Amino acid sequence: MRKKIIAGNWKMNKTVEEAVELAEELKRCYAEQTAIDMVLCPPFTALKSVSDVVSESQIRLGSQNMSSEDGGAYTGEIAHGMLKELFVRYVILGHSERREYFAESDALINQKVLKALEKQLRPILCVGETLEQREAGTTEQVVEQQLRGGLQGVDPMAFTELVIAYEPVWAIGTGMTASAEQAQEVHAFIRGLVRELAGTEAANAVRIQYGGSMKPANAAELLAQPDIDGGLIGGAALDASSFGALIDAATEA
Ligand code: PGA
Question: Which of 138, 226, 217, 145 is nearest to 177 (CA)?
Fold first, then answer.
């Protein structure tokens, strides 16, 4: 049995004060819950404050990006050591917004994945096709290329730590969700590919989140699919009641 994982990707939202308020609200209800893994990914500027709020709880901290370098002259970047110092456990890597607006390649994302694993941070590796690619019938090719690229050199044993997020680009922030069947189909494909790349044990262990307009109204159906192990949540993670409803849905799934 894979433990479900719900992560909130707050993107470029929330001041420190707002971030602390949201984290505190969530902590009030979920500090002790261990049925699922619950992760908050605030912007870098709020990591320290949110870390202080959740430090004595079961709520885990994630960052939205990480440099592939150890440190030094890389203006604007954040290194693994800086994240670990704040008790960050997860790092979102290769989000479609990073790929699209910041030209992140599969090769760079792969370096980040390998660095994160080397430093005992858990990567959440994001993959997904655009609407154009889906309509052209190339969803599986696109996802396969992103996974083969991003997972190059990853030890089969690491799939117990690494998380994959399937996020169809056309569903992110658009209100258009992949249907449960559409999502399950790609999730099963991803698990099959992990089996091919790293073996059956790795495929059975790896958790695959769905992301893209997941909200309380559609979560139960998505989370009931055999290969959907959780969610990476954007918009609905910015509010304690909707994020809480997603935690509840995952707990009951
Ligand atoms: P969304 O974002 O839930 O707002 O669609 C998901 C994501 O980008 O991780």
Answer: 217
Closest alpha carbon to 71 in 81, 63, 61: 81
The residue annotated as part of the active site, out of 80, 104, 167, 187, is: 167
Spell out which residues line ligand 1, taking CB within 6 angstroms.
Answer: 9, 167, 172-173, 211-214, 232-236
Q: Whose CA is nearest to atom 2 of ligand 1?
A: 234
Q: What is the pLDDT of residues 206-224, one digit of tens each?
A: 999 999 999 999 999 999 9
* Marked catalytic residue, from 95, 97, 129, 144: 95
Nearest alpha-carbon partner for 51 in 14, 89, 81 = 89
Q: What is the CATH number of the domain that holds 186?
A: 3.20.20.70
Report how far residue 107's alpha carbon sits from residue 124's, in angstroms, rounded to the nearest whole number: 16
Number of domains composing the chain = 1
Tens of pLDDT, residue by residue over 145-171, are 999 999 999 999 999 999 999 999 999
Question: Which residue, judged by its Cα, is nearest atom 3 of ligand 1?
Answer: 234
**The model's pTM:** 0.97
Domain range for 67 is 5-252
Please indicate whether residue 167 is annotated as part of the active site. yes
Residue 20 CA to ligand 1 centre (angstroms): 21
